[in-house]
Amino acid sequence: MGEVHKSRSIRLLVFIVIALAAFFLSNVVDELRVFQGASLSVYIVAIASIVLLTGYSGQISLGHGALMAIGGYSAVLAHNHWKVSIPISFAIAIVSTAFFGSILGWAAARLKGPYLAGTTLALAVGLPSLANQFSVLGGEQGLAFDVGAPPKSLGSDFTQYKWYFWICALAALIIVWITQNILTSRYGRQWRAMRSAPISASLSGIQIGRSKVLAFTISSGIAGLAGAMLVMTLNLVTPSAFPLSLSFAIVTGAVLAGVTNLGGGVIGALVLVAIPDIADLLAGKMGGAEKISANLPGFITSLILIVTVLLLPNGPKLSKLVSHKTK
Amino acid sequence: MRLFSTLLIGLSSGAIYSLMALALVLVWRSTRVVNFAQAGQAIASTYIGYLVISRTDNYWLALPVALVAGALIGALVDVALIRTLNKRVKSGPAAEMAPVIVTLGLLGLIRSTVGMIWGGDLKAYKAPVTNHGFTFGTTTIPFSPYNLLIVITTVIVMAVFSIIFQKTNLGLSLRAAAFQPEIARLAGVRVDLVRTIGWAFAGGAGAVAGVLVTPSNSLSPNSLDLLLVLGFVGAVIGGLESLLGAAIGGVVLGIGLAFILEYVSTSLAFPSAFIVLILVLLIKPSGILGKKGGRGA
Amino acid sequence: MFGSIRHKRSLVAAATLATAALTLSTLPAQAFSPHYEVGVSASTIKLGITIPLTGSAAPGYNKVPAAMSAYFNYVNDNGGVNGRKISLVVKDDAYLPTLAVAKTNDLVLKDKVFAVVGALGTANNKAVASSVNLGRRGIPSLFINTGYSGFADKAKYPTTYPLLPSYIVEAKIMGQYIKDNYAGKKLGLIYQDDDFGSDAQAGFKAAGVKFDVSVPYASGSQSAASGAAWVGKLKAAGAEVVVVFGVSSATGVALAASAALSYKAQWILGSVGGDATTLKALGVPAAILTGAQGASFLPSPGDATDEYIKQFQDINTKYNAGAVFDNNVLIAMNTAMLTVQALRAAGSNPTRAGLMAALESKGGSFASASFSPILYSSSSHVGYTGYWIGKYNSSGVMLPDGGKYTLYTTDSGAGAVNTVASKRPAMPAKGLPNN
């Protein structure tokens, strides 16, 4: 028991160090990087939700973009109609998405692998466009989301993007911390047992169905937060902010780093943000006809993805260092 | 009359979904991989068909050329990518997810390659027969010789595949290699070769779907994206376990969508796929023809 | 003990390395002389655009950047703007607001462009305006490619200047035309079920037009099957005049389905989906397009008798190798021509504020292919304000009835619809602005 406490305190220390490093960096790098840092935090949180759901409880979801949409809309509606603060809006996003996730999880618990994949895929495609049906959701134009300027006490040259970064980074750190604790708790162990040896797991008393639904619920809540963070950085919530490619991207990010690895999720997020940037750079240098230069970044990105997964299907070895001893 | 029209519309679009579902089921049964790159393979084959049409203006030539191209691309993908993947990933969570990412990456790769070669402009594909609905007296029904062509071609493809699977030794080997690869190997079946043939068949089916759907949609690198999703949903509805399931699933989806669009609301196109799917899965979680307990899906 | 220290170190190391890597990969910004505005140097003016080059919304729009650059290159070859050459930085946003914001950030913070021109998409421009906050940064976003009426709000979008008349304006004008010419007929409407459509419905309501049957469709869901469903509904309601307020692909499936189902009606096509070249590529038979009516604020791209069209076609052939001259190319070159005039009016040492002031004070007199007056002023960010109604002939060229352009103008609010005989500034010699 003492071991666990010691390891938890070390972890807390590590998180605090990262937090300080992030805040220090935010004062040093330029505005573009700070904004990318905010986007990075969104991905980190979204990937964390997949690590929990797929890496631990073994359920595939290709539709987490739709869950992010629920979180995004909840946060915006709460903020615009009830005039609540940002932390409360984010909390409402988490709760409402978790609620929806529990219903989805109940349906999903009966579905296996590709059937679940297909269902979540259909959800990813179908859910965001529902916003066009209800005018309170703003339709395709979307709803504006203004979290307000940074407080005056931070100085007059504290940019809006830095403010977003601080909020997103803080939210990401807190939620990853909590998720890590959940994953190392008995629930995390139950999920891993359930995923790797379902028969012995149920024989030893784990209620598979309930455990799965719990995983889906928590994972959805986390995804909801990512959605709220995303719409904050956009100042807008609209169906087109949650395309199918978003759901694919977060699953890709999770797998790239080793889908059971929360720490690796940071690397996955970095890859998701950095590779298109690098591809754009390379394509710009190569130049050429319009149709080549427009498609080259996508080509390079896809190629890197395929090669990376083929070479490192379980994620980079680096993540073995940063993760905790897990089977 | 309205009911009949809606059924016809659903049947024609459902036939296309069935073909795509067939391709996905073929690969699933032989390799246990959901092949998202199927849409990429199909679009590449369709563009190759476009090459033929733009030179010879002959749709009847373009169709088999695209089919062969699709089969070759399918085989290539299996040999180059999937076998490598299988060697490197044996088990664990990565084994389920890595093929998803690899095929997604391949989809993006093929789409951007197609874009680089042909550009993003819309390309037209003329249908070989008129798409003017059959007319009886003063009424014209929403089913044309072209829709009939789609349905007949789908039926032929399904029939050919069923015969191959049920009546030939190749089909027997395909099924054996899919479900009991070690035993099949012991029995002398060249499992890897047979799987590649399965991928080739799937690629061909996807190519036919692409060529059939394009005259009414026109061609661009992203024009088959929706078909991938609907094909997959159709495959899941049908149960992912049999060719007949793929056919039924696709048609059920097509008809379901047509009915929702006609009787509920025309702006529910995207959510309706989810609605049809969840209704089926709530009653039968393994799809219409799927087997309960599955084969360890 | 050792394990946990190694743990902490490696975690911090990993995080630091990764962040440093991302930071270091920043390109150094081009060094501009401190005497000039951002994006301006002694020899160049850098502009930026975000537009879908890939993805499902790309067909058609992906031709715009090349056409704009073609016009800019033509001007550059003929002296440029006050001695400077214009360069256009093109960013692909695949029609996604998240990418539009990220790429505009690149344009503003990394490429450091002078201004953004022709940015496309309602949701995209909304996100960019609020997130990148062009207003606060004082960066002009000129001639945005969208018809959403909200962008005319100066207070909300202080540096954004729409060009296209809003969808409300278009719908009001169509509505008035229908009341004047098709009173008593059964009316049908096909509309896209989002901002597009709701703006249109507001416009028709303002014009006092009621439809006997309205068919909404979800953006992206158009297909042969859905087209058949729409036509089924129109047929069942007996609609004689049908307005299509949708994108080209939706207009295409509606027309193709009608041809297939032998459904005849008087079609009125909205400007967004009315490009004949695109419709033909989508398989619409010439027969059903002939006699259809449409609204436009530009001359038909197929009308080679028009002096602007002829000149643009010429530039297109010489500078935009191989591109078919269609509506997209026309709008692109028209926008580019307006941009050049705005830059010229901004003077020999252009600033961002100066650019916007020049547009507001002198924009009304700029030469452009449109028959609509340009309304930029210190109190109005609205560009074009009117449409003419034309009929497609058997070659797919839309021409005004009787050969004379009658322009309808109105606002996005409750103002009446008025007709004016259109006066269009003559095209500057050789298509090179001389303002």
Number of helical stretches of at least 4 residues of chain A: 13
Averaged pLDDT of chain B, please?
87
Supply the helix-strand structural class of chain B. mainly alpha
Q: Return Rg of chain B in Å.
A: 19 Å
* Helix proportion range of chain A: over 70%
As for the CATH topology of chain B, it is: ABC transporter involved in vitamin B12 uptake, BtuC
Show unreliable segments of chain B. none
DSSP E strands of chain A, number: 2
Main structural class of chain A: mainly alpha
CATH architecture of chain B: Orthogonal Bundle
The strands making up the biggest β-sheet of chain B line up spatially as 1-2
Shape descriptor of chain B = globular
The largest sheet of chain B, given as strand count, sense and whether it forms a barrel, is: 2 strands, antiparallel
Core attributes:
heterotrimer; B: 297 residues; mainly alpha; ABC transporter involved in vitamin B12 uptake, BtuC; two-stranded antiparallel ribbon; 74% helix; globular; C: 435 residues; alpha/beta; Rossmann fold; 2 domains; nine-stranded mixed sheet; five-stranded parallel sheet; 14 strands; 40% helix; 16% strand
Short summary of the structure?
Chain A contains 13 helices and two strands. By secondary structure, chain A is mostly helical. In chain C, helix 2 (64-77) packs across helix 13, helix 6 crosses helix 7 and helix 12 (307-319) packs across helix 13.
Please, could you describe this protein's structure?
The complex is a heterotrimer of chains A (327), B (297) and C (435). By secondary structure, chain A is mainly α. Chain A contains 13 helices and 2 strands. Chain A has one domain (2-243). In chain A, strands 1-2 form a two-stranded antiparallel ribbon. In chain A, α2 packs across α10 (244-256). The longest helix of chain A has 27 residues, at 2-28. Chain A is globular. Chain A starts with a helix and ends in a 5-residue tail after the last helix. By secondary structure, chain B is mainly alpha-helical. Chain B has a single domain (2-129, 140-283), classed as ABC transporter involved in vitamin B12 uptake, BtuC, CATH 1.10.3470. Chain B has helices at residues 2-31, 38-56, 59-88, 93-118, 145-167, 169-179, 181-186, 191-213, 225-238, 243-264, 269-283, and strands at 135-136, 139-140. Chain B has a two-stranded antiparallel ribbon. In chain B, β1 and β2 (139-140) form a beta hairpin. The longest helix of chain B is centred in the N-terminal third of the chain and has 30 residues, at 2-31. The model of chain B has no long low-confidence stretch (mean pLDDT 87). Chain C is an alpha/beta fold and 435 residues long. Chain C has 2 domains: 44-165 and 305-384, Rossmann fold; 167-296, Response regulator (Rossmann fold), CATH 3.40.50.
